[in-house]
Amino acid sequence: MKLLAWLAILLGIIFVIVGIIYFITPAHSLPSFFPGFDASTAKTHLKHGIGAIGLALACFAFAWFNTGKKSSQK
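Below the sequence we write its predicted structure tokens.
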């Protein structure tokens, strides 16, 4: 289970980086493998950034709940 937590943290960091790239890079300057690299899709560009940050938060929450203290059943 710790492997899944570390994988979720790694994916969360990657999604944070992708989200930051979406926010600070103009749409026409994005790498071609990023969705939304067309300059005419400014709203899609913003939505992809918000989505990437949301996925990062979900990965971090998964890792947090996966590594928490295990409760004992009585």
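DSSP finds two helices and no strands in the chain.
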